Amino acid sequence: MSSFSWENEWRLENLKEESFLTKHIMDKTPKWVNFVRKKVPTSLQRTLESAFGKAFFMVFQKGTGLIEKTYRKDEQKSIYKSSNRKMDREGFTVSGVKRFDRQAKRTIRKNLVISLFEGIALGICGMGIPDIPIFVSVLLKSIYEIAISFGFGYTSEKEKLFILKLIDASLKSGDTLRKKNEEINALIDAMNEEELDEQVISLMVTRQTDEAANALSRELLYGKFIQGKAIIGLVGGINDIVCLKRITDYAVLKYKRRFLIEHGVE
């Protein structure tokens, strides 16, 4: 294994991570969100928040089996194993790592297209609330496929916690984003260096599910409100894509970090 290649790749990933943090350090609320916020009654806002929380919890806790039917899990695992065998034979090289990157980014592009069409279609039809479980399903499908691309699972409690934390962190900005990013990096180190207590993890998953749902709700709430209005709901559908890309871009960074640590120079 080439120490030089690994160190270069590690340095590059840290630069990409810093670029993501810097890009979102001064995020501003879009003008259309401020406009819509004034139009949404408090009671309706609570209804939307509740609907989002319930939909997210239902899909995350009980929808994995159905989500897995929407993509070729075994085929993607086979692609990962093939790439991993080549790396074992050839050693750690930049071209070898790119095989895993390409597979992850291929799934992102595919799922962005899916989200684009369903979000815009439902937006034109004026269907905002029904879109929530569909969006959550596409989001989780994207993350699951990214995980598989880098050789990780997503069904254990610790993997669920990791997914929830990256969703929550990816939608933050400024110092909060930096703090949560550090927490995820610490979790990655703990996952690689020590056994995590399953009972403690289960309790953390319950709490983190609420935090991830709230983060998504804050990001998409007003988009879902206008998505419930025929024709202008198109804007809400487009907002889905922006949100999905932000989360999946961050997910690639975090899974790539785990991948590099696991394949670190001995």
Question: How are the SSEs ordered, and which strands pair?
Answer:
Elements: H1 3-23, H2 31-39, H3 42-62, H4 64-68, H5 73-90, H6 94-125, H7 131-149, H8 157-170, H9 174-193, H10 198-227, H11 233-262
Number of domains: 1
| Biggest β-sheet description | none
What number is the mean pLDDT? 82
> Residue ranges: pLDDT <50 for 5 or more in a row?
none
CA gyration radius, whole angstroms: 19 Å
Helices and strands, in N-to-C order? HHHHHHHHHHH
CA-based shape: globular
Number of contiguous helices: 11
Structural class based on helices, strands and sheet pairing: mainly alpha
Beta strand count: 0
Give the helix level as a range of percent: over 70%
Terminal Cα span:
9 Å
Percent strand equals under 5%
Walkthrough of the structure:
The protein is mostly helical. The protein has one domain. The protein has 11 helices and no strands. Helix 1 runs antiparallel to helix 11 and helix 3 crosses helix 7. The longest helix has 32 residues. It is globular. The protein starts with a helix and ends with a helix. The model has no long low-confidence stretch (mean pLDDT 82).
Structure summarized in a few sentences:
This protein has helices at 3-23, 31-39, 42-62, 64-68, 73-90, 94-125, 131-149, 157-170, 174-193, 198-227, 233-262. With 266 residues, the protein is an all-alpha fold. The N and C termini lie close together (9 Å).
